[in-house]
Structures are given as structure tokens and as C-alpha cells.
Here is the input.
Amino acid sequence: MTGTLYGIGVGPGDPELITLKAARLIAACPIVAYPAPVGGTSFARQIADNHISSSAEEIVIPVPMQPDPAPAQAAYDHAAPVIAGHLEAGRDVAVLCEGDPFFYGSFIYLHDRLAADFPCEVVPGVSSLMACSAAMNTPLARRNDILTVLPATLDEPELTQRLQNGGAAAIIKLGRHLPKVRRILDQLGLTKRAGYIERASLDEGTALPLAEAPATAPYFSMILVQAQ
Amino acid sequence: MTGTLYGIGVGPGDPELITLKAARLIAACPIVAYPAPVGGTSFARQIADNHISSSAEEIVIPVPMQPDPAPAQAAYDHAAPVIAGHLEAGRDVAVLCEGDPFFYGSFIYLHDRLAADFPCEVVPGVSSLMACSAAMNTPLARRNDILTVLPATLDEPELTQRLQNGGAAAIIKLGRHLPKVRRILDQLGLTKRAGYIERASLDEGTALPLAEAPATAPYFSMILVQAQ
Here is the structure.
């Protein structure tokens, strides 16, 4: 009997926004894996800390944080056979994922490498999309609204065109792209309908009208644009 | 001291996909409100059943299930002052919401009526969007993918144009619009990249390639289209 690979969403940051199912499975798995920035601590592990068994074996996947995806892919190339070894030996593996595993989650890279060969189950989590909307205390989408999720990494013409189409929008992965996104929203007259959020659901989080947002943004920050 | 209005996401259906925070607040609130179809039972209440205090007063909001929004709005017009009365008397009110309260949730109609006058906090929940992706065992969006959420109620030219733009898509609120949506996806050559999901996260749920989907769909069903 091979083990099962669980991709477990641990939610946006508040440890209380983990699901009962995630908490149960994390506690039950003998192997717990998670990404961590090279030289840093894992946010996903920090969120799930209360639930990891003291007898669990932990696998850290050190992920270089840089625009070039190749070194991160190499880290998953290295981690996948280690995880596969545990699954082949019949041990279940919980992979911890910030937010939701399949919504822009790094778990996808392990799923790509392992799901064809092993039983795989994803436990959906509370996404940052919903946590940011709650932090702004403003609905994300209602009735017949269209909602578009746009990575800020897209080029200026593509972002402009998509935002021009109307509806609600979430612009994710801001980081160094914040000035570009602000410029586009200003040009389209959308700034007054936009909110800026970082570290949603955490005490130290920020949720402001975009006009009052700081000049620089971390990678995990988001702009929400309300539908008209 | 007025009470706080909590909009609480209880997740997509599996009672284990409720968050620790939702479970705690539902148990603590003396007043628990939820929508239910006229003459039917409330799915949100069923999901949260284990957590509702036996001493809680329950407020059922009977919502007519029909395309005309006016009768549903009248139901919220009627419920809002009842809830306001409890808040004015200092009692916290938990409003239970399937999925996430601000993601196409009916909680938005109470928020519209009450958030200006009372403290309001939304507890984000696991959305059906993420639960459907998990049910298909297929990533929703990765890296620089654009994801568009489209209500199936939109007209055919608008749906066609949005789906033509590329990226990943989630088409929600299928119901009687399923034949129209299938026709559009066929014409665009997208059927082979589409999955059909109903009752995600429940034992009786369905997750199939769209080509194998049934001819009729409930309102709470979804089509996910993978990005190329």
C-alpha cells in the first residue's frame, strides 16, 4: 500500500483560519513537508504549528525567492523523489500550503511531479482572495459580477485591457509591480474603487483605500477593485 | 454596547471544511441567522450544525429561489431590522453563509443593510471555487495565469468574448444555463479543457470531464476551464 499525498491549504495567515479537516490530517500524517524561502522560515509551517505531531518527520523545501522560476523548479525536482520515497514506503505525506493549494499555490509543482504515480488529495483552504475582501470589509463580487484575477507580473497592455473590460478585479503578486499597477488604475479612473491589502487576517495586516497605500508592497499583497 | 454582526463562511459543504474561527464564533453567538429556501432546509445551517449552541436563538431568512431578485431582497428587508434589534440590545449575531460570505454570498445583502450602523466582521470561508478545483484534482491557476469568474447568467456574446480572451475560467451558477455554456465552450474548442462539478466536497458530489457531464445541472454547480 502506497501512502497518500495530501496538499493541505492552511489558509491566509491567521492560525484560526485553518479548517478542521486540515488540522486533523496534519496531526495524523507522519511526514510533513513545506516550502520555506532560502535562509528563512516557512509561513505555512508557522500557520500550522499547533497541529504538527511532535513525532512527525519534517521536510523543508528551500525555495529561492526570485523572478527566474528555474531555481525554484530545481528545488521541487529535488524534493519530489524524497517525498516519493515516503509514499512508496506507505507513509502519508502532508504538504502545507499557504491559502489554497491549487490557487496559484506552490503545491502545484509537487502535484505535477507526483500525482500521476500516487494517490493525491487536495484539502481546499481559505484563499487570500477571500481574506483580503474580509479585511477590506467590502464584498468581492455579487450577483452577475465578473471577477478577474490578474497577476501583477503581466505586461502593461494586457493588464490595461483586462481592467478596461469592467467587472471586479483582484491584482495579486504586487511586489515590485505596484507602481505599474497604480499607474494603470489611475489612467483608467479606477483608483477610487480600489483597496490595497497586505498580510490579510493577521493582526499586523494592512487594508486601505489604494490612494492611501504605501509606496512599496511585499510580494504577498493584493489590490481589489470593486465592480461598478 | 452594540453587538457585532459576524458574516461567517462555513465552507462548501463538508462540515470538516469549516474553520476553527468559524466554529468558535458560531458556538459563542447567542443569535444565529441563516437563509433557507422557502419551504426547504438551510444548507448553511446543516454544515454548521455541530457548532450551534443549544441555547442559541435561530433566525431563518426564507429566500424565494427564483430568477427575479425582488422577492429575495424583500426577505432581506424583513430580516435586517430583526437582526438590528438584537445588535442594538448588545447581542452578537452570527450569519451563516455557504462558502465565503463576500464571494457571491447572500450575506452581502445583510451587509448592505447593516454594516453602516453596526460593527461588522467577515470570517472568510473555503469557497466552492477552491473546493471544485480540489474535486477535479486539477490546479485552478498557476504562475501568470489569468483566472476569470463568470456567472452563467451572462448573455451569450459576453460569455463568448470573455472565454475567448484566454486564461483559466470558472463558470458559476450553471442551473438552466448549462446548455448555453456547453454550446459556447464547444464553439471555442474549450470542452476538452473543461471539468464539471456539483456538490463539491460532499460524498455524493460529482466531478467529471465536461464531455461526460449530465444534461441538467443544479444552480450550485460549476464548470472549470483550465488555462492553456
